[in-house]
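HUMAN: Now follow token order:
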Amino acid sequence: MLKKKEEHQSTEDEILAFEEKREAVNNKAKEYLHDKEKLKNLIEEAEVKAKDEKSNKGIVKETWDSLKEMFELVKAYINGDYRRIPYGSLLLIVGAILYFVMPVDTIPDFLAVLGLTDDAAVIAFTIKKVKKDLDQFIEWKQQQEINLEDETE
């Protein structure tokens, strides 16, 4: 009985630690969203890391492509070209990019059991949460490319 109580306390402690880390990443993402230059530098760092072949090991192509689209979305947001994204979705995307660039060193055991142990899992989770918004951005971006082609003809 004591062992079960200790395990329960350990899980509660891990959940609390995770919530604190999630809150810290959330606050950090907000900080970046309020400083365009800092956000621009983050995207540049992320793109450099993404070009490093070691960074994409274990990340499926679809997830990798979506990560690159998230970079594009944030750049369009910074430039003021694209603003049709809910703040919460933008916050999740910036948080995932932060995690990609600066991974958290300690992952609570209960997350490891769920498989959320690396960049790929965090990115995939974020994509799942913001898929609709990311798809709308991709559609918008494709329309911009069509409009640009029409103007040059």
Summary: The chain is about 80% helix and 0% strand. Residues 119-152 form the longest helix (34 residues). Confidence is low (pLDDT under 50) at residues 105-116. The radius of gyration is 18 Å.
